Amino acid sequence: MKIVMATGTFDLIHPGHGLFLEEAKKLGGKDAKLVVVLARDSTVRSKKRVPIINEKQRLEMVKFLKPVDEAVLGSETDMFEVVETIKPDIIAIGPDQKFDLDDLRKDLEKRGFDCQVQRITKYHKSNLDSSCKIIKKIKKSEFDENAFKNC
What we know:
This protein is of the alpha/beta class and 151 residues long. It has one domain: 3-Layer(aba) Sandwich (Rossmann fold), CATH 3.40.50. 37% of the residues lie in helices and 16% in strands. It has six helices and five strands, in the order E-H-E-H-H-E-H-E-H-E-H.
């Protein structure tokens, strides 16, 4: 059984997340195990923005997703710490994740990790295909007094 590791923020779950995880799991073949590593709140704040959903709730939601066999929080200090724990055969990188695959492979090799790194190229294109687009739509809607009258 091959272990595939996928990482991300998974702040506001949308179909693109589901497609990414489904495709990631396929990389390992029929009996693959998919382990998802979620970025910590502190990491999200330093690299992207303030997370909308806290890390514990994001972790809980990702565990419910069909392709996911296991989900864990990443390290706040060393992103390779979780690689040591999980020992993946394959690390799946999302189509919109800003990793240079060659640099990542070199860093993994320097640390003695023997795993493949593959980018998922399929992308679920829609109007709301990213957490940022969802946030922007909500912000735009707050000026419509009827948008949230039942919330």
